[in-house]
Amino acid sequence: MSAALRDLDERIVRATQAGLPLVREPYAALAAALGVAEGEAIARLEAMLADRRMRRIGVVPNHYALGYTANGMSVWDVDDDQVDRLGREVGALPFVSHCYRRPRRLPAWRYNLFAMVHARSREEVEAKLGEIRALLGQALRAQDVLYSTRILKKTGLRLS
Amino acid sequence: MDDLDRAIVNRLQGGFPLCPRPFAAAAATLGTDEETLLLRLAALLADGTLTRFGPLYDAERLGGAFTLCALRVPAADFERVAGLVNAHAEVAHNYERAHAFNMWFVLAARSRGDIARVIAAIEAETGLAVHEFPREAEYFIELRLAA
Question: Is the residue at A101 inside a domain?
Answer without folding.
Answer: yes
